Amino acid sequence: MDTQMEKLLAAQERALQQKNEADRKAKQAKKQIEDLKRKRRTQRLIVRGAILEKFIPDAETLSDDDVSALLSGLLNKLGNYGRSESSLCLVVVIRPASGLVFS
């Protein structure tokens, strides 16, 4: 009877070790997924920031608030005309002392 009990206890211990190993691997995979998502987001932000700086004159002189106002104004103008409008003309004047003006 003791032999059967020992076998069952050993099987229980192996199952517990396997469960712990599976939990560790799942936790490790979750961390890798989070790291990959963070790296992809960082790359996306860098690329999109570079694209914005390509089209915004003197972007390095603008504050974060100025860039936010610029994008907000552009999107509001696009909302008024519709995004598929091909004849959209938007003039943006950047005045450091008084801010951004959209016309």
Radius of gyration: 29 Å
Proportion of residues in extended strands:
5-15%
The major sheet is characterized as: 2 strands, antiparallel
Oligomer: single chain
**Euclidean distance between termini CA atoms:** 91 Å
> Which strand order does the major sheet show?
1-2
In DSSP terms, counting alpha (H) and pi (I) runs of 4 or more, how many helices? 2
Describe this structure in a few short sentences.
This protein is mostly helical and 103 residues long.
Plain-language structure description:
By secondary structure, the chain is mainly α. It has two domains: 1-55; 58-103, no CATH class. Helix content is 70%, strand content 8%. It has helices spanning 2-55, 64-81; strands at residues 92-95, 99-102. A two-stranded antiparallel sheet has the order 1-2. The mean pLDDT is 83.
Using brief descriptors, characterize the structure shown:
mainly alpha, 2 strands, 8% strand
Topology:
Layout: H1 2-55, H2 64-81, E1 92-95, E2 99-102
Antiparallel strand pairs: 1-2
